[in-house]
């Protein structure tokens, strides 16, 4: 399966900005925390085994979601910190940036989480994430040989 | 960026790849017929149709979400409306209506007056007790489970049994929040 | 134009039907599962063909009927015609669809370099379940031709995904 540079796929991919070579990693998780897909393009740091790495990424998002919702100044309802949330409940963050990288995130109401880690100069990737979600639907979910909930080969 | 409003069922249906409903209807009919031959018991056929629907539902949900732009399904009332108006429309080309809400908003009816599954279908007397469209209730149950809603879906009215419409009762049992999936000592 | 439904309805129904027969009803009996899936296809082909030929004169020979399958029938079902038709003039016809709709989303990983034996079996299983999906269209063709008065056997070859060849052997 090819993600960037696909041929006859619809809808058409959003125009990418920048000079390529921006992407570091991509993760797709399902609602049970199973990492369905991991790809890396440019990641010199390799200190963790894959499973640890996926767990850490999932944990980071899980906690961040919980914290961001807790700190939401506009919402009346507040769960206790760490209390399980429904996907799509409360506010949700879609990216954060450090001096060395940017993490963009989307979560579907069905709990599919797509994460792109790119250069800190990358712009808004929300359309790209949605595009990837569409690819996931067309080429993974609709593949007759794919068993839902298993890693994408 | 303001959140994008969900698309209307008509708009989504106009944009998806469509096929002759005959192929769909006849394929479903042939499956039910084969199941009746292979499984013999009508009750077992009902159960398997529901199971098939459930498995379809857990696949279908992501296509539904991706194409309809629905970005959250937290409120059950809202979700039921979206299933009826967008979900049914975008897959089957017909919409359902939602009625009969109970007082606490956890139980409603989806009513379908036009149902492509049953074109050219007449049930012989030997199929008493068969819920021919049981795949539909399974699809709804499966899809809702993927958006954290445990439901019970049952038939109230069935035109193949002489009623004036198809009516599915959808009861929300509980909403299952997302738990941290790993144990700490793992 | 008659009533339409989303293509996804048909795709998902077939995926689940094949999976139910292969993984639940006849898990350890793939031959039996294949026969049932073919029988469902047969029924569909029979009924579709009857509908599509209601207002047509009867076909005068086998080639006429096969051409009808390649053009009109295929267009109704798959929105395109068969791309290539070959025959040995002794009752065998090969119908090739260069981009068979029901296979376009199937990805069978054929250049797996890993020699891990567990992966090998997984792969075999994958090829096997991929071929399970072809009994349904084979049944459809056999059903359609039978309704036109041509008893036959139909097999399929998908060594060139997403192209697919259906081999029709006319009986008698």
From TrEMBL, chain A:
- Offer one Pfam family short name for this entry: Sybindin
Quick one: where is this thing mainly located?
A: endoplasmic reticulum
Please, which domain of life does this record's source organism belong to? Eukaryota
Q: Where in the cell does this protein reside? A: Endoplasmic reticulum; Golgi apparatus, cis-Golgi network
The alphabetized UniProt keywords are: Endoplasmic reticulum, ER-Golgi transport, Golgi apparatus, Transport
Concerning CDD domains, the annotation shows: TRAPPC1_MUM2 (cd14855)
Q: What Gene3D superfamilies does its record include?
A: 3.30.450.70
Q: Which SUPFAM superfamilies match?
A: SNARE-like
- Gene Ontology cellular component annotations, sorted alphabetically: endoplasmic reticulum; Golgi apparatus; TRAPP complex
Q: Does the keyword Transport apply?
A: yes
Provide one Gene Ontology biological process annotation. Answer: endoplasmic reticulum to Golgi vesicle-mediated transport
PANTHER family documented for this protein:
TRAFFICKING PROTEIN PARTICLE COMPLEX SUBUNIT, TRAFFICKING PROTEIN PARTICLE COMPLEX SUBUNIT 1
Q: Which family does the record claim for this protein?
A: Belongs to the TRAPP small subunits family. BET5 subfamily.
This protein's assembly is summarised as:
Part of the multisubunit transport protein particle (TRAPP) complex.
Q: What is this protein called?
A: Trafficking protein particle complex subunit
UniProtKB/TrEMBL annotation, chain B:
Which subcellular locations apply to this protein? Endoplasmic reticulum; Golgi apparatus, cis-Golgi network
Q: Name the InterPro entries on file.
A: Bet3, NO_sig/Golgi_transp_ligand-bd, TRAPP_component
Q: Name one GO cellular component term.
A: Golgi apparatus
Organism domain of life: Eukaryota
Keywords (A to Z) from UniProt: Endoplasmic reticulum, ER-Golgi transport, Golgi apparatus, Transport
Please give the Pfam families that the UniProt record associates with this protein: TRAPP
Q: Name one GO biological process term.
A: Golgi vesicle transport
Q: Check the record and name the Gene3D superfamilies matching this protein.
A: Trafficking protein particle complex subunit 3
Principal location class: endoplasmic reticulum
Family of the protein in this entry: Belongs to the TRAPP small subunits family. BET3 subfamily.
Outline the subunit composition. Homodimer.
Role: May play a role in vesicular transport from endoplasmic reticulum to Golgi.
* Protein's UniProt name: Trafficking protein particle complex subunit
What is the protein's species of origin? Stephania yunnanensis
Lineage of the native species? Answer: Eukaryota, Viridiplantae, Streptophyta, Embryophyta, Tracheophyta
Automatic annotation (TrEMBL), chain C:
A GO CC annotation recorded here is: TRAPP complex
Q: Which InterPro entries match?
A: NO_sig/Golgi_transp_ligand-bd, TRAPP_component, TRAPPC6/Trs33
The family database entries (Pfam families) matched by this protein are listed as: TRAPP
Q: Tell me the superkingdom of the source.
A: Eukaryota
Instruction: Show the CDD domains listed in the entry.
Output: TRAPPC6A_Trs33 (cd14944)
State any GO BP term from the record.
endoplasmic reticulum to Golgi vesicle-mediated transport
The UniProt similarity line reads: Belongs to the TRAPP small subunits family. BET3 subfamily.
Q: What name does the UniProt record give this protein?
A: Trafficking protein particle complex subunit 6B
Species, as recorded: Stephania yunnanensis
Instruction: Recite the lineage of the species.
Output: Eukaryota, Viridiplantae, Streptophyta, Embryophyta, Tracheophyta
């Amino acid at each position: 399966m090819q993600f960037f540079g696909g041929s006859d796929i619809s809808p058409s991919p959003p125009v990418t900005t920048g000079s390529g070579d921006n992407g570091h990693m991509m993760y797709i998780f399902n609602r049970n925390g199973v990492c369905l897909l991991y790809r890396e393009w440019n990641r010199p740091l390799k200190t963790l085994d894959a499973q640890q790495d996926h767990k850490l990424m999932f944990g980071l998002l899980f906690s961040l979601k919980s914290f961001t919702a807790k700190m939401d100044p506009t919402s009346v309802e507040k769960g206790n910190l760490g209390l399980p949330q429904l996907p799509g409940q409360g506010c949700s963050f879609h990216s954060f940036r450090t001096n060395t990288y940017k993490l963009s995130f989307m979560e579907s109401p069905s709990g599919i989480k797509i994460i792109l880690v790119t250069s800190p100069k990358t712009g808004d990737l929300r359309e790209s994430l949605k595009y990837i979600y569409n690819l996931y639907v067309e080429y993974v979910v609709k593949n007759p040989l794919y068993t839902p909930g298993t890693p994408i080969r | 960026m303001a959140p994008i409003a969900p698309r209307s069922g008509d708009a989504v249906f106009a944009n998806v790849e469509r096929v002759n409903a005959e192929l769909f209807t006849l394929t479903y009919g042939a499956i039910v017929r084969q199941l009746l031959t292979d499984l013999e018991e009508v009750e077992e056929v009902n159960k398997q149709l529901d199971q098939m629907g459930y498995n379809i539902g857990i696949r279908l949900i992501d296509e539904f979400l991706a194409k309809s732009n629905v970005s959250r399904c937290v409120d059950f009332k809202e979700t039921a409306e979206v299933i009826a108006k967008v979900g049914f429309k975008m897959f089957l080309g017909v919409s359902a209506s939602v009625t009969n809400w109970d007082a606490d908003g956890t139980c409603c009816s989806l009513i379908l007056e036009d149902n492509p599954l049953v074109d050219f279908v007449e049930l012989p007397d030997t199929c008493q007790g068969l819920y021919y469209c049981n795949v539909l209730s399974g699809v709804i149950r499966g899809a809702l489970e993927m958006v954290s809603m445990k439901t019970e879906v049952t038939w109230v009215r069935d035109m193949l049994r002489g009623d004036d419409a198809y009516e599915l009762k959808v009861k929300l049992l509980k909403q299952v929040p997302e738990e941290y999936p790993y144990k700490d000592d793992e | 134009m008659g009533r339409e439904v989303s293509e996804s309805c048909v795709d998902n129904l077939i995926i689940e039907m094949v999976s139910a027969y292969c993984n639940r009803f006849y898990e350890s009996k793939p031959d039996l599962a294949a026969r049932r899936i073919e029988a469902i296809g047969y029924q569909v082909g029979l009924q579709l063909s009857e509908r599509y030929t209601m207002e047509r004169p009867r076909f005068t020979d086998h080639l006429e009927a096969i051409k009808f399958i390649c053009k009109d029938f295929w267009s109704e079902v798959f929105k395109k015609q068969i791309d290539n038709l070959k025959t040995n003039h002794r009752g065998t016809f090969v119908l090739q669809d260069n981009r068979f709709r029901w296979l376009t989303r199937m990805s069978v990983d054929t250049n797996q370099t890993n020699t891990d034996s567990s992966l090998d079996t997984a792969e075999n299983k994958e090829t096997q379940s991929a071929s399970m999906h072809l009994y349904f269209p084979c049944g459809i063709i056999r059903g359609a031709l039978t309704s036109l008065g041509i008893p036959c056997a139909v097999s399929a070859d998908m060594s060139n995904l997403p192209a697919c060849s259906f081999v029709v052997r006319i009986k008698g």
